[in-house]
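Students often ask why we bother encoding 3D structure as a string. The short answer is that it lets us treat folding as translation between two languages. Here is a chain of 75 residues written in the first language.
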Amino acid sequence: MKRPSLGAILLALIPYIAGCFSVPLWDRIYPMVFGLPFNFFWLTLCLLLMPICLWGAYRLEESRSAGPHDQGGDD
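And here it is in the second language, the structure alphabet:
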């Protein structure tokens, strides 16, 4: 099994860091964003960001593992 690339690791860490370590920056009730308190909006945004970042990490690893030997043809 190959080690994941640095880009895939960084993409996977974006929502984790945004959700866990930025709390002191956004822990406020006001302002309101789309009718939600900002802290609830931020956590919802992190939850929506997570699958996008993980999909990007998956695509990076998929393209990295597909080499010239995997390019079509009959075996």
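Translate back mentally: The mean pLDDT is 80. Keep this in mind for the problem set.
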